[in-house]
């Protein structure tokens, strides 16, 4: 008698998940302004990116990759990119992800380190959990380009 | 009766021993799952395709775990340890001790004890970053350290090896913006009650494929709630064996430690009906 109940619970959760996944998949292709606003618009994103850069500098797993980088330009580009990805009115003018990472041999360890620092920077700026997850969801498709896979 | 105190003392020692370790690996929080009762990374009852600890592709990591499940007529204690190399291979050991609280006098045995060596390899993918999720294959070599009771009730062997294939995938922002972790596992096994009652029996002595699944939702990166289901064989004529399931909540304050609490339903176990109860597991990573 208990097994059918559990299957029902599992099915409900799974189907609910699929519907939501489909819903947000739609968001990804036509970015909603809600995420951009939850990140604090361009000014909020600029602060998050600034905090991210401080975390990167202190992170021995990845800071070597940023040696010699024009920090101001990098800050502007990444802010524009996250603004654009989150549905804001910005245009990313930097190089493509595959091109800019082609010679860097980024490892999983380094990719995880950057993801961790981005999440910590968003947390430090009070970005709601759902908005953090939605931004990460939109960045994850860049994984194969950044890892040069 | 002293066990809870021992448990708490050992738990605190584990936390202090590992708190000093700064480098626990780079994978994101909770992507090592927790430690299942068989020692491998998983939920509580079922192995997941995740590897334990937080080693990413250039790192090592390890875990130690203490778990306890107390149902109406039994209590199971598990001590486990494992290492993971470069998020590729996981090697684990677990010792399970099942106290026969109610049956003990009738059987003339206080407890059943089983050792489990586990090996799991990530075959493909990544639970977070690959659209197809992460896939792993594993085996569990199980050996009864006390075989009098399993033999008496019709078990055919005191050792057995489970082989399984599992997939795990995290869907970002799946439900109300929360991340959803889905796991499915198929296990070939002859184990009776996970092996604590031996392997094979009078009703069946062949490998059978069993399905296991779980879904869990990250409320945030520290809190995870979910449910698991584990199908089981029914090899012994003396008593029917039921499938297992649970509802769990896990707290992963950071990579070094996790605490999992669950309500488990083990069904009928060795003639004693409706074994439900509480499960508590503490894991430390280094």
UniProtKB/TrEMBL annotation, chain A:
The keyword Iron applies. It comes from the Bacteria. Heme binds at residue 101. SUPFAM superfamilies: Globin-like (SSF46458). GO terms for molecular function: heme binding; metal ion binding; oxygen binding. Pfam families: Bac_globin (PF01152). Keywords: Heme, Iron, Metal-binding, Transport. This is Group 1 truncated hemoglobin. It comes from Marinobacter confluentis. The lineage of its organism: Bacteria, Pseudomonadati, Pseudomonadota, Gammaproteobacteria, Pseudomonadales.
């Amino acid at each position: 008698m208990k097994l059918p109940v559990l299957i029902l619970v599992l099915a409900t959760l799974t189907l609910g998940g699929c519907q939501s996944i489909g819903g947000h998949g739609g968001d990804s292709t036509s970015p909603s302004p809600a995420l951009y606003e939850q990140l604090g618009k361009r000014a909020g994103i600029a602060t998050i990116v600034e905090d991210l850069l401080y975390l990167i500098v202190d992170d021995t797993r990845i800071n070597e990759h940023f040696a010699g980088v024009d920090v101001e330009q990098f800050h502007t580009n990444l802010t524009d990119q996250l603004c654009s990805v989150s549905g804001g009115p910005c245009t990313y003018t930097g190089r493509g992800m595959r091109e800019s990472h082609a010679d860097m041999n980024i490892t999983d360890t380094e990719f995880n380190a950057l993801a961790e620092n981005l999440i910590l920077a968003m947390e430090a700026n009070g970005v709601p959990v759902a908005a953090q997850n939605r931004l990460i969801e939109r960045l994850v498709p860049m994984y194969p380009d950044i890892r040069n896979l | 009766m002293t066990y809870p105190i021992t448990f708490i003392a050992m738990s605190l020692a584990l936390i202090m021993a590992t708190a000093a370790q700064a480098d626990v690996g780079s994978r994101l929080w909770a992507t090592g799952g927790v430690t299942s009762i068989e020692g491998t990374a998983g939920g509580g009852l079922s192995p997941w395709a995740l590897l334990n600890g937080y080693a990413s592709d250039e790192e090592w990591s390890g875990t130690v775990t203490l778990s306890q499940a107390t149902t109406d007529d039994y209590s199971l204690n598990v001590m486990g340890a494992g290492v993971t190399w470069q998020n590729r291979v996981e090697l684990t050991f677990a010792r399970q001790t099942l106290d026969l609280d109610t049956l003990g006098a009738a059987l003339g045995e206080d407890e059943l004890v089983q050792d489990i060596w586990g090996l799991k390899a990530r075959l493909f993918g990544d639970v977070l970053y690959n659209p197809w999720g992460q896939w792993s294959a594993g085996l569990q070599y199980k050996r009864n350290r006390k075989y009098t009771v399993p033999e008496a009730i019709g078990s055919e062997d005191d050792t057995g090896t489970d082989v399984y294939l599992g997939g795990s995938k995290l869907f970002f922002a799946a439900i109300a913006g929360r991340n959803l972790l889905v796991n499915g596992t198929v296990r070939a096994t002859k184990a009776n009650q996970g092996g604590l009652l031996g392997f094979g029996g009078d009703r069946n002595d062949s490998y059978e494929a069993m399905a296991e699944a779980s879904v869990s939702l990250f409320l945030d990166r520290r809190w995870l709630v979910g449910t698991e289901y584990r199908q089981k064989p029914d090899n012994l004529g003396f008593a029917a064996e039921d499938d297992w399931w649970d509802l769990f909540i896990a707290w992963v304050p950071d990579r070094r430690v996790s605490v999992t609490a669950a309500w488990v339903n083990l069904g009928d176990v060795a003639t004693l009906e409706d074994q439900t109860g509480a499960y508590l597991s503490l894991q430390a990573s280094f």
